[in-house]
């Protein structure tokens, strides 16, 4: 993914996350249905649900990394 697209995805995901779990669930369900991937979605959700939030937060996994500043001349 190119940096501009990655930054846009991060901004949009941050906004959706702020709208709450139902919006995120609706998006994931709609995407999985459109790509015939309901089983894959459930498998991935189960795997991610096993993550420990304390450990994830301790290592920065609960936020996007800061983007490096670039000098433009």
What would your notes on this structure say?
With 73 residues, the chain is mostly helical. The protein has a domain at 3-51. Helix content is 66%, strand content 0%. It contains four helices and no strands. The chain has helices at 3-18, 21-34, 38-49, 53-58. It is extended.
Task: State the gist of this model.
The chain has 73 residues and is mainly α.
Could you list some keywords that capture this structure?
73 residues, mainly alpha, 4 helices
Radius of gyration (CA) equals 15 Å
- What's the shape? extended
Number of DSSP helical runs: 4
State the low-pLDDT regions, or none.
Answer: none
As an assembly, this protein is: single chain
Following the backbone from N to C, one meets helices and strands in this order, namely: HHHH
Major sheet summary line:
none
Portion in helices: 55-70%
Strands, total number: 0
Distance between the termini: 25 Å
Q: What percent of residues are in strands? A: under 5%
Report mean pLDDT, rounded to a whole number.
Answer: 93
**Which class best fits the helix and strand makeup?**
mainly alpha
